[in-house]
Write a structure and sequence with these properties.
The protein is mainly α and 700 residues long. It contains 29 helices and 2 strands.
Amino acid sequence: MIEISASGTVGLASNRIEIEKTRMNGLTPGVRVALLCVLVGAACLLLAPSQAWIRTWPQALTLPATAWIGSGLTTAFEFLKPAARFVAKLLEYPMVGANRLLVGSPYALTIGVLAALGWHIGGKRMVALVLAGLGFVLASGYWVASMNTLALVFVSVPLALIVGGLIGVFAYEFRAVRRAVETMLDIMQTVPTFAYLTPLLLLFGFGPVVGLIASVIYAAPPMARNVLLGLQRVEPDIREAAIMNGATRAQQLILVEIPSAAQQIMVGVNQTIMAALSMVIIAAVIGGFNDIGWEVLLTMRKAAFGQSLIAGVVIVIFAVLADRMSSALARDRKRHSWKVTAAILLLGIVIAALQGSLLPAANDFAAFKGTTAVIDRYLGAFTAANGAVLEGLKNTTMFFVLLPLRIGLDEAVLPFTWGFQWTTGISIAVFSVAAAAAVVLGLRNRALAGLSLLVATGILVTGIANLPWPFVLVALGGLGWLAGGPKLAAFAVLMVGAVLLMGLWEPALLSLYLCAASVLVCVVAGGGLGLLCAVSENAWRVMRPVCDFLQTIPLFVFLIPVLMFFQIGEFSAFLAICAYAIVPMIRYTQHGLTSTPEELIEAAVASGADEWQVMREVRIPYSAPTILLGLNQTILYAFSMLVIAALIGTTDLGQQIYLALGQGDVGLGVAAGAAMAILALVADRLIQGFAARQRHALGL
């Protein structure tokens, strides 16, 4: 056993004998929790046939939470609606102004202004990116729709920056409420976006204002977190210097601390811009106004994949431009010549003045009209020629991977899928083999691995969607106890128990299943790619821009390619979730494995370890906290995508939220959104707890 300390020493653990004794006696906390889960799971399997309440939460104990929430919010909204509608009217003025400015301005002027800004902050490469990107947008014929989207972003981003900045400063100044503020930020980011579109729609009315307010809610937390983080990182010497010079608290904050934290705050600006852009695209679902998000949704509904692909590329272009330009602003870099900036701006003004007589109107461009027809023809020909292969891939994954995870082997194994019928005898044989393997592992002092094998076997045979609720609560409580003690265990049990009481247990388990399946693929594939990128710089050079691109794409766009090839269904949703959630696993694995201190590696090599032993005994243990954080982000990304995936055919909490949005059922929307947020929060707290324990074990 190798122990790694913060001082960079590698050696035999001094407590090895005690650990081995504890393992032999089976008294480790992990073994106790695993044993409890096995016993509870076995009891549930034995009693479930005769005790229906074990699998299905009794209806008599279900609270009418949806009705209560709906009634309470409706009553509150009737009281708040006049003030909300007044605020909506006020917000219409800057929105209408921004819209008229962007749509009414000559496109040559808009391109010239952004190109000049691109030169000033990024030089030739940024100018080339702006011209190429906006040139494509203009040629696509989506210029007006794009400007409508950009108008929402122009108004929502400043509001989100102000709200987020004030929240961050408030949390920094008043430490007593900091934890409560951080919890509020967690809720703002984990509650699915569609969930609060329903109450906002009822409160503020139909139209783009709802998208604006939802965008502010979604985009403010990144700014708040980065402001708080930046202010916390200000060197104490800087604060002391300000105090010694007689600065008041307000002067110290405004004139010293905020400027010192400017670089971190600008990172928040970047993330806020990206979040706002992503959210206004999603808000098109209920806005119905002529923006680029609505174009994507409309063309997808018509199965006009050529048009939807072009519109999706336009969204990606704006996302890439926003990311690159805001990132350039965040970096402390020398700006380029203001003379060239002025010249580019002047050229744009001149061309704009001549645009009416020399250039066509923005709506007259349709350079890709023929391209969309070619894409549709090629796609039709490709799917016709390879339909059997695509259908086979989808069916194989569904029948042999997703369905067993969802409903268990005992229900998924059928003659027309697997070639035989699963029987009770097969279940007994499988559990017997697993039990024998667990005994062998226990005799080899690996009791935890053996018991975990039994738990995994039970889950695979039963299916995640059919798990008995007592087993789930006990398992989550045990994991919470291991990760953070009794408080975290109580938090996990009480939060998930609330989902039970709300009567949303079945869709919650379906969300858990789809998220678990996607995260499992992301862990295997993303972890493998991260490992490859850690050992090969060339692989990372190829993978890094791919990760940047995938993280820049708004969520909506991930639906387009999967729908093109696999149509609507759970498999398409699964692929979209995997594509979006895999990036954090790749990044954090690569970063964790490459950030191991050199002195640790040198000490291991000097001890005679080969490259694989160094990876297994040094790099992986040291990077475990970072990899766990990557797993945490992967899970949160998967939950974020679940609601978007509901647009293409899922039956989980995301579908409940989407149905509530269409029906205007504020109670169901909020309850289902709260349930999904609960699952995400519990997963987040558990992973963070295990990461903290690992950091403590490493002395970090």
